[in-house]
Amino acid sequence: MKKVTLLLLAFLFLSPVVFAQDSDIDDDMEIEEPAESPKKKPMQLNESGDQFIRLAIMMTCPLNFGGSFPLYRTGQMNTGGSGAIGYHRFLTSWFALGLDISFGYNPTLGNNVFTYVPIILNMTFEPTLGKFEFPMTVGVGGSLETYLSRSYFPGFTVKADAGVFYRVAPGWSFGIEGDFMYMPQWYSSGNSEYKNHGNDYGNFLSFGLAARYHF
Question: Band of the pLDDT at 88, cuts 50, 70, 90?
């Protein structure tokens, strides 16, 4: 009987210690709630390092001409066309540098054709709104200009254009563009072929469709 009594007393004495240890173990085993994951930044259409190839086809209208080459005056050159291909790379999400090569032609009332191949280094400022892109580009370069058997190279060229594009897929956008191109032709006084003529100041306005492949 004494042994049973001693065992009961020992159990009553040790049980609070055992339960206290179990409680400590349970506290240590509580699972910490995961910290909130950082919010993702909204996806931008363009990032630094992004590139695109531009393809365009346009209707080109002459605005005014004078001088000797290509022997046109106002109203003597008809509406023509042009096409372009270019490579551009974004330095920031809104600023890109690039190179465009195009080919244009304008017929005359005498059924001759004035052709030109501008090579333009340019820079583009491009804000976006949702999936819409609004590129605004200015550039300078040179052109090979040809009329009949005569050619003019390098013809100083300045070009500015703007457009609206819609990103239909991550790799493609389509839109409309308009541009203004200025192509003067300067002749030295020692050039006997053009000594009786002044300089030319060609101005062109173009409108058309364009596609861009982004990568």
Answer: very high
Q: What is the 3-state secondary structure (H, E, C) of the chain?
A: CHHHHHHHHHHHHHHHHHHHHHHHHHHHCCCCCCCCCCCCCCCCCCCCCCEEEEEEEEEEEEEECCCCCCCCCCCCECCEEEEEEEEEEECCCCEEEEEEEEEEEEEECCCCEEEEEEEEEEEEECCEECCEECCEEEEEEEEEEEECCEEEEEEEEEEEEEEEEEEEECCEEEEEEEEEEEEEECCCCCCHHHCCCCCEEEEEEEEEEEEEEEC
Nearest-angstrom CA–CA distance, 96 and 53: 12
* Chain centre distance of CA 12: 82
Nearest to 163 by CA among 153, 149, 147, 178: 178
In this structure, the number of other CB atoms found within 10 A of the CB of residue 41 comes to 6
Q: How far apart are CA 103 and CA 119, in angstroms?
A: 9
pLDDT tier, 8 (very low <50, low <70, confident <90, very high otherwise): very low
**98 with 53: CB under 8 angstroms?**
no
- pLDDT tens digits, residue range 145-177? 998 888 888 889 999 999 999 999 999 999 999
